[in-house]
Amino acid sequence: EHDHDDHEGHDHSEGGHGEFTVEYHYQCSDIAKLDTVSTQWFSKFSNTKSMTVNLLTDSAQIQEVLNADRISFRF
Q: What's the whole-number average pLDDT of the chain?
């Protein structure tokens, strides 16, 4: 038997959100040809609202926010 009164004092985060960090490293033999970053994340994980992308190269440091309507950026 489960008594809901026993739950007083601790949170249920129904409808809350999760946050996590993913880090990828890529090596490109001709970085000069790389000018766009895109993702299919939002088509695979449709409940995701947005993601922050930090791009670091030898010549650029960029932060962009992507969402289902904006899945790529140029640099």
A: 84
DSSP string, 34-52: --EEE--HHHHSTT---EE
Q: Give the Cα separation of 23 and 54 in Å (integer).
A: 9
Please state, in angstroms and rounded to a whole number, the distance separating the CA atoms of residues 69 and 66: 8
Return d(Cα 75, Cα 66) in angstroms, integer.
14
**Local structure of 32: helix, strand or coil:** helix
Domain positions in the chain are 21-74
pTM of the model: 0.69
Q: To the nearest 5 percent, what fractions of the chain are helix, strand and coil?
A: 15, 25, 60
Q: What are phi and psi of 2, to 5 degrees?
A: -120, 115
Enter the tokens of residue 43: 């088509």
